[in-house]
Write a structure and sequence with these properties.
By secondary structure, the protein is mainly α. It is built from four helices and three strands. Strand 2 and strand 3 form a beta hairpin. Helix 1 packs across helix 4.
């Protein structure tokens, strides 16, 4: 359990959730707040950290300006497509 009483996610689960949200809105860049509205119960700080890690791996792009806005890249889309194919989604 987290300090707020919510169950802990498995390793990589939040990253997968953020990728799914960004893939569903691939044509727009989304702020951390916008992403967090799509993933209720998860902190914006954790979502931001996941976005920054995905930026370093080339899965999303961090656009200039404030607030921070992330947009999925073709590499990130490939990951969501590969995940969906392997799970039958």
């Amino acid at each position: 359990m987290n300090t707020d009483g919510k169950p802990r996610l498995q390793a990589g689960a939040l990253t997968a959730m953020v990728l799914d949200v960004l893939a569903a809105h691939a044509d727009v860049a989304m702020s951390v707040t916008e992403i967090s509205r799509e993933i209720p119960g998860r902190s914006s700080g954790a979502i931001n950290a996941a976005g920054l890690a995905m930026t370093r791996r080339g899965e999303v792009t961090l656009l200039p300006g404030r607030p921070k806005r992330f947009q999925i890249t073709p590499t990130g889309l490939t990951l969501t497509s590969a995940t969906a194919a392997s799970t039958g989604s």
